[in-house]
């Protein structure tokens, strides 16, 4: 088909309103799997359920797995039939657990009770790990090798069990008690002599415990550039693997969350056009209320220095410049340090080093901007006012960079998402402190 996605959506809505199910089935049969997924993401919950029933069975599972977890939850709630139970059975255990987190408890129990014994055995232990831990995102389906397994036997095991495994590119090696001794890659096994034992070329494997934060485990997987990280219990017994594609999805979700909170809202965790208006409002209004209340600080500062403003009205012209510069400087520092925290470049114990570095960065930028402000304000107005602007820019940039760099580390230390203290709060803080610095310097230099 050559129609655009928007045209297909329009056609599907027309067919839905006409109750033309045959036409809808024809429309879906002409689309590839990823196109069907994008189409469903743009529809409301009821229409999505109708179209999903018309998808061919071979395509339905792939489309279902491609949907964001909240959309899967809505779809399960809308369908409520044996078709859903069959889809749930066919999901990988980690996808199954992620879906259960989005469902009402009653629906989750019903789906779990409908699982086969084997799939329930794989899924139930994962639900016992804390939310946000890698234990809930790992796959318990993997090919395990023993140290005394030969290369030929290992290849046979991959051919026998690899179809159901999350990955065959990394093969955990463990003894009969499941204690991990390392891992081998499929390439290692395929290129080894058939009679060589796996234990002779096993390598140390990057491992994480099941209670490790999923984002930390995901970054470890990408840091080692490996197809999977082995997940163990506290006694190094193998429980499963975290694959690189799951790790990438975890980090993508984390970055979306950080970006949303840095912008003063909560992450949607679903496509924008399929998000109800009420959900959009709830994701933003709380932050707006918090920021509105915190902005009262700025008003209070202006009220305190009302006499200074009355004496030199020209000072009011530079308030947007100074507050904007301070807020932007603080936000830049906070964003940089938050990113460094996320990738493990800095730790909370590095607070002193970060503070010293950001003070130097802020002072350097403040000196450049201050010199420019001094010259421009001096030429346009007078040199005393230029000196006020220059000195304020130097002080504001230094303070804002220092505060912006330190706040994410403080947030991390007390267990709060560092992104929360990024743009919104730091901008408000820098506005208030910048005005205090501005009027203090003005009062001293202009003698008012």
Notable characteristics:
CBS-domain, three-stranded mixed sheet, about 450 residues, globular, MgtE N-terminal fold, Magnesium transporter MgtE, 5 strands, 3 domains, mainly alpha, two-stranded antiparallel sheet, Tetracycline Repressor, domain 2, about 5% strand
Q: What does this protein look like?
A:
The protein has 448 residues and is mostly helical. It has 3 domains: 128 residues, MgtE N-terminal fold; 101 residues, CBS-domain; 152 residues, Orthogonal Bundle (Tetracycline Repressor, domain 2), CATH 1.10.357.20. Helices cover 63% and strands 6% of the residues. It contains 21 helices and 5 strands. The strands form 2 sheets. Strands 3-4-5 form a 3-stranded mixed beta sheet. It has a two-stranded antiparallel ribbon with strand order 1-2. β3, α13 and β4 form a beta-alpha-beta unit. α1 packs antiparallel against α2 and α4 packs across α6. The longest helix is centred in the last third of the chain and has 31 residues. The termini are far apart. The mean pLDDT is 84. It is found in: Cell membrane; Membrane. Belongs to the SLC41A transporter family. InterPro entries: CBS_dom, CBS_dom_sf, Mg_transptr_MgtE_intracell_dom, MgtE_N_sf, MgtE_transporter, SLC41_membr_dom, SLC41_membr_dom_sf. This is Magnesium transporter MgtE. Homodimer.
